[in-house]
């Protein structure tokens, strides 16, 4: 018969941490027909599992269950709370699928996965648990248990096979962008499209003609001129797998693990091909030595990057788009033939393009009768797409704020964005520019 006991959660002994043990009074163990080593289910707000071990006489009669922090967190309970405990069948885990909880680390290699079973033997887990895996060098990392075979609570033994569910780098899943969301940049869009689409579509023709297909394009121009926007639009419109990478992040956030990170990115791109890898601030990865802007981009990271690039074959169906506003810092090796040998400059938009950008960003917004986008385009000389987008967002906010704070206008007046809202927004953006230039 299944017996459920109620016990109060208490702290584990320091030496028990990470073992998945629950220390219990022998009387309490008997109460649900358990013996030492049995598997129990602990039910707080969540279910988790632990293995029974005996506690010390000073805890007898207190009706407590001593479990460590990770078990408490897996059961979603706290010290002093009451949990329900019952015995469940003792099963051994054949396979456990795990995924990393923290994406800032390099994923474990196959050989490390094999070590997990040895390190964790005896530890019980159940689907939904987090497990703490001690790595060499005393570091620990948390993983989610995504699936187990057999299902239910299982105990890891030496032979348990660990499988890794790889994270998807494009998880941030940018919202789709269409070609209509780009103002101006007609020539740039056409050229990047050709560079991306032709080699993917006509890989065989390239090969037949003995031409090496371009690996990618270097997009060069001031920040906010639409380089990322174009890359995203092409990826969404052509349904390519899109991986966005930030150069400085690879160097700094993944310090010491940058090369492995690069390898993973290229691996994912190849696996999910056809794909586009978009590398923003690529100068951080491949700057000329001593240029000083992105200090600390080690040479080995650059050579790893070049290796990955050179190893892409015409069949890989992976296109690399690099973006920079500091072409002067780039290692010329990047734009060597067979690498990003096509450089496309993104200009500061002219009046006609600014008008198009205003049109894109005011589409579906209620404009006042006095709002003349042509005049706005004229009066924003020198501004780039990101600033115009900001002006349009700010003008909307100004108009909304005005409506909210002018009670006499409500509820009869509808929201509309008039020229004065735009003018105020332009001033705000100019001020922001000035203060960030100081
Ligand atoms: P970059 O990559 O060149 O630094 P982004 O493409 O990230 O610039 O631009 C930032 C934002 O500015 C975009 O998401 C978009 O809202 C706006 N933007 C920039 N250029 C344009 C453009 N040509 N047309 C429409 N919006 C633009």
Describe this entry's structure for a reader.
The chain has 438 residues and is an alpha/beta fold. It has helices at residues 26-31, 69-74, 110-120, 186-201, 203-208, 227-238, 247-252, 258-271, 299-311, 351-362, 373-378, 385-405, 419-437; strands at residues 5-11, 21-24, 39-43, 47-54, 64-67, 82-88, 95-100, 124-125, 130-134, 140-149, 154-155, 161-164, 216-220, 241-246, 275-280, 318-324, 342-345. The strands form 4 sheets. The protein has a 6-stranded mixed beta sheet with strand order 2-4-3-6-1-5. Helix 4 (186-201) crosses helix 6, helix 10 (351-362) packs across helix 12 (385-405) and helix 12 packs across helix 13 (419-437). The chain is extended and about 85 Å long. The N and C termini lie far apart (76 Å). 36% of the residues are buried. Mean pLDDT is 85; it is low at 169-173. Bound molecules: adenosine-5'-diphosphate.
Concise synopsis of the structure shown:
The chain has 438 residues and is α/β, with parallel strands linked by helices.
Helix/strand/pairing category: alpha/beta
Helix content: 25-40%
Radius of gyration, Cα only, in angstroms? Answer: 30 Å
Q: How many strand elements? A: 17
Unreliable spans are: 169-173
Net shape: extended
Query: Tell me about the biggest sheet?
Result: 6 strands, mixed
Strand residues, percent? 15-25%
> How many helices?
13
- For the biggest β-sheet, the strand order reads 2-4-3-6-1-5
N-to-C CA distance: 76 Å
Ligand types: adenosine-5'-diphosphate
- Overall mean confidence score, pLDDT: 85
Order of helices and strands: EEHEEEHEEHEEEEEHHEHEHHEHEEHHHH
């Amino acid at each position: 018969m299944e017996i459920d006991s109620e016990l109060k959660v208490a702290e584990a002994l320091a030496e028990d941490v990470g073992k998945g043990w629950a220390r219990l009074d022998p009387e309490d163990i008997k109460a649900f027909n358990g013996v030492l080593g049995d598997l129990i289910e602990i039910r707080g707000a969540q279910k988790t599992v632990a293995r029974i071990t005996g506690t010390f006489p000073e805890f007898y009669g207190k009706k407590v269950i001593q479990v460590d922090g990770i078990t408490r967190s897996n059961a979603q309970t706290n010290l002093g709370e009451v949990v329900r405990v019952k015995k469940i069948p003792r099963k051994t885990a054949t396979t456990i699928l795990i995924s990393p909880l923290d994406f800032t680390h390099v994923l474990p290699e196959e050989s490390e996965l094999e070590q997990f079973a040895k390190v964790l033997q005896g530890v019980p887990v159940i689907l939904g648990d987090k497990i703490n895996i001690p790595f060499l060098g005393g570091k620990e990392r948390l993983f989610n248990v995504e699936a187990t075979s057999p299902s239910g609570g299982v105990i890891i033994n030496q032979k348990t096979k660990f499988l890794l569910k790889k994270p998807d780098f494009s998880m941030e899943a940018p919202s789709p962008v269409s070609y209509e969301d780009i103002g101006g940049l007609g020539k740039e869009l056409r050229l990047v499209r050709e560079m991306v689409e032709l080699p993917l579509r006509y890989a065989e023709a390239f090969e037949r003609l003995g031409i090496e297909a371009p690996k990618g394009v270097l997009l060069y121009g001031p920040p906010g001129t639409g380089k990322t926007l174009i890359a995203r639009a092409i990826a969404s419109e052509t349904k390519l797998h899109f991986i966005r990478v930030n150069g400085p992040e690879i160097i700094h956030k993944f310090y010491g693990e940058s090369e492995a990170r690069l390898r993973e990115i290229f691996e994912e791109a190849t696996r999910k091909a056809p794909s586009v890898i978009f590398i923003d601030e690529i100068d951080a990865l491949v700057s000329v030595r001593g240029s000083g802007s992105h200090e600390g981009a080690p040479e080995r990271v650059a050579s790893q990057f070049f290796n990955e690039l050179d190893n892409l074959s015409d069949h890989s169906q992976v296109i690399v788009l690099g973006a920079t506003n500091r072409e002067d810092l780039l290692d010329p090796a990047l734009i060597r033939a067979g690498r990003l040998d096509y450089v496309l400059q993104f200009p500061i938009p002219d009046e006609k393009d600014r008008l198009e950008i205003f049109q894109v960003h005011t589409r579906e917004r209620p404009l006042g009768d006095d709002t003349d986008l042509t005049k706005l385009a004229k009066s924003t000389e020198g501004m780039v797409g990101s600033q115009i987008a900001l002006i349009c967002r700010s003008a909307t906010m100004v108009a909304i704020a005005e409506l909210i704070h002018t009670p006499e206008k409500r509820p009869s007046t509808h929201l509309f964005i008039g020229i004065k809202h735009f003018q105020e927004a332009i001033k705000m953006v100019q001020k922001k520019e000035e203060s960030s230039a100081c």
